[in-house]
């Protein structure tokens, strides 16, 4: 089966390809000639995933899936949430985002947080949503150099390491994106 993954984020594409493990042939936006930046103007993570998937289906006619991910920090009433990628500004710089987050939490004892990924799948005229959560906490310092985004400051439950210190294999098993993608794979497998 061929599916378009509505993303230009090479880190996400590599991570999803690794989780799919060859079960689906993934086409990127570049593969289908989509070079525009798909607007993410919804005020929810679900809404942005739906916007991106619908954009590809409506403008290019492909079955596809899109994801959106946010980091929700309890002490910040769910922020940065839907604005995670541009928390520190439109430059979407991971270091700037982490620095702003660590600064916002510097006097905070409650460091509980969760990553949330929603995948919107448009397949044969129907839309399906899959949600993955990874609960954990925000560390006091950045550690590790694997992964991307907020990985160096997110320590998942039951682990002493941050996502950025874990191997890709372990991270993909326990991560929000891994869980949502597993649901997607299970769903697609039931259709074979």
Concise overview:
With 192 residues, this protein is an alpha/beta fold.
Explain the overall architecture.
- This protein has one domain: Maf protein.
- The chain is built from 5 helices and 7 strands.
- It is globular, with a radius of gyration of 16 Å.
- It starts with a strand and ends with a helix.
- α4 packs across α5.
- By secondary structure, it is of the alpha/beta class.
C-alpha termini separation:
10 Å
Total helical elements:
5
CATH topology call: Maf protein
The portion of residues assigned to helices is 25-40%
Going by CATH, the architecture would be Alpha-Beta Complex
The level 1 CATH classification is Alpha Beta
Average of per-residue pLDDT values: 93
* Low-confidence spans: none
Q: Please write the string of helix (H) and strand (E) elements.
A: EHEHEEHEEEHH
Strand content: 15-25%
Class per helix and strand makeup: alpha/beta
- Could you say how many structural domains there are in total? 1
Query: What is the gyration radius calculated from CA atoms?
Result: 16 Å
3D shape: globular
Write the topology of this structure.
Layout: E1 2-5, H1 10-20, E2 25-27, H2 45-60, E3 64-73, E4 80-81, H3 94-104, E5 112-123, E6 126-138, E7 154-156, H4 168-174, H5 176-189
Parallel strand pairs: 1-2, 1-3
Antiparallel strand pairs: 3-4, 3-5, 5-6, 6-7
Helix pairs in contact: 4-5
Q: What keyword list fits this structure?
A:
single chain, 192 residues, alpha/beta, Maf protein, seven-stranded mixed sheet, 5 helices, 31% helix, 24% strand, globular
């Amino acid at each position: 089966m061929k599916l378009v993954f509505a993303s230009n984020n090479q880190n996400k594409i590599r991570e999803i390809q690794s989780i799919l493990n060859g079960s689906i042939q993934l086409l990127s936006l570049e593969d289908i000639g989509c070079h525009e930046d798909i607007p993410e103007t919804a005020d929810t993570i679900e809404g942005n995933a739906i916007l991106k998937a619908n954009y590809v289906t409506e403008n290019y006619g492909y079955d596809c899936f899109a994801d959106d991910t946010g980091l929700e920090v309890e002490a910040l009433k769910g922020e940065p949430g839907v604005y995670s990628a541009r928390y520190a500004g439109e430059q979407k710089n991971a270091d700037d985002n982490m620095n702003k987050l660590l600064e916002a939490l510097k006097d905070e004892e409650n460091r509980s947080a969760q990553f949330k990924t929603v995948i919107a799948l448009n397949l044969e005229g129907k839309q399906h949503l899959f949600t993955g959560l990874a609960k954990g906490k925000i560390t006091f310092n950045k550690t590790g150099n694997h992964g991307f985004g907020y990985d160096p400051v997110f320590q998942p439950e039951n682990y002493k390491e941050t996502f950025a210190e874990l191997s890709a294999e372990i991270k993909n098993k326990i991560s929000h994106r891994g869980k949502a993608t597993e649901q997607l794979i299970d769903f697609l497998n039931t259709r074979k």
